[in-house]
Specification:
Number of helices: 10
Structural class: alpha/beta
Largest sheet: 4 strands, parallel
Radius of gyration: 25 Å
Order of helices and strands: EHEHEHEHHHEEHEHEHEEH
Strand order of the largest sheet: 2-1-3-4
Shape: globular
Helix content: 40-55%
Strand content: 15-25%
């Protein structure tokens, strides 16, 4: 039997449960597993939360410890980052273990919110239709976490991490061969798609022509919709530097959504989400212009994903429009 190491994300509010987290992480390490505790990178804004989501993506199990505090709240969702972590783990079908404190009203004032409404509702949500273990002492919590992890390892074994010398080479070679064939198929599809664009497109827009972008934005009070007209040069000058090193399609979309409209339109929206059709049009237009290439490649967690990078023509054109020109005569 292969000796798997499981990566386990430990989630909670921080200051009030600092001691409990420390001992739980130590016990998970003693079990020979790989705890992930974000002690040095606690989510406190939406940009940091994007990073934490990528960490959760690589975890096999998710442990949620709930005390008397709800935690920092995202201005975008109105939910605490701890609750957003929990919901993201559920969304990704990562097995979740929940450990709520038995009676939060009995906690000392420094370990609970003045208004317990939000944390009480979160405890109810996290406990509903789910096996959870309530706790009232640190030792009892640690014992429950360790026992629950041993049980879930048996009931719901995950992919985990395996030493290379313990891996089944036959299975690995079979998977590599399958991925290689799939990669070849996707490469051929992309090549045919690029050739069809080159052959069929007439009168393609010049780089200094305008394109209208539709987007949703958030301000302090609500979400609204608007448009902005920009040239293809403006679009490429923003996207291009992100593609000097290839990005997967999802990461590029995130970069565009993050502050594309704000930078090009000199706006100050708290968040922006471009219309998906417009994002696809941008990608196809730059592909047709020969400035980017789209290709399939293996993702970190397995499977084939779509990646985008500059072509030689794209890199040369980016240098042309982004290089600072001398003012000397």
């Amino acid at each position: 039997m292969q000796n798997k190491k499981y990566q386990i994300f430990v989630s909670s509010t921080y200051e009030d449960l600092k001691d409990e987290r420390k001992e739980i992480i130590e016990n998970i390490s003693t079990m020979g597993q790989l705890p992930v505790g974000m002690e040095l990178f606690v989510a406190s804004d939406d940009e940091q939360f994007e990073y934490i989501k990528r960490v959760i993506d690589n975890c096999d199990y998710y442990v949620l410890i709930l005390g008397g505090r709800y935690g920092s709240v995202s201005p975008q969702t109105g939910k605490s980052y701890t609750q957003m972590e929990y919901e993201y783990a559920l969304e990704k079908n990562i097995p979740v273990l929940v450990f709520p404190f038995e009676d939060i009203t009995s906690l000392p004032k420094e370990k609970r919110d003045n208004d317990l409404k939000n944390v009480s509702e979160f405890i109810e949500i996290a406990s509903k239709d789910r096996m959870c273990r309530f706790w009232n002492t640190k030792d009892g919590l640690i014992l429950s976490v360790v026992n629950s992890l041993h049980k879930i390892f048996e009931d719901k074994p995950q992919r985990g991490w395996i030493r290379p010398d313990e891996f089944d080479n036959t299975a690995l070679l079979t998977e590599i061969n399958t991925l290689r064939k799939r990669n070849q198929e996707l490469e051929q599809q992309v090549k045919e798609y690029q050739n069809s664009l080159t052959k069929q497109i007439d009168n393609i827009a010049d780089m200094d022509e305008l394109f209208e972008i539709h987007f949703e934005y958030s301000d302090r009070y609500c979400n609204s919709y608007s448009t902005i007209q920009v040239t293809w040069n403006q679009i490429f000058s923003y996207i291009g530097p992100n593609l000097i090193k290839s990005l997967n399609a999802a990461s590029l979309t995130y970069q565009i959504d993050k502050n594309f409209v704000n930078k090009i339109g000199h706006k100050n929206y708290s968040s922006v989400h471009l219309d998906d059709d417009d994002v696809n049009t941008i990608k196809i237009q730059l592909l047709a212009q020969g400035l980017i290439r789209v290709y399939p490649a293996q993702m970190v967690k397995g499977g084939i994903g779509e990646f985008i990078e500059l072509t030689k023509k794209g890199l040369q054109y980016l240098k042309q429009i982004k290089t600072v020109k001398t003012s000397k005569k």
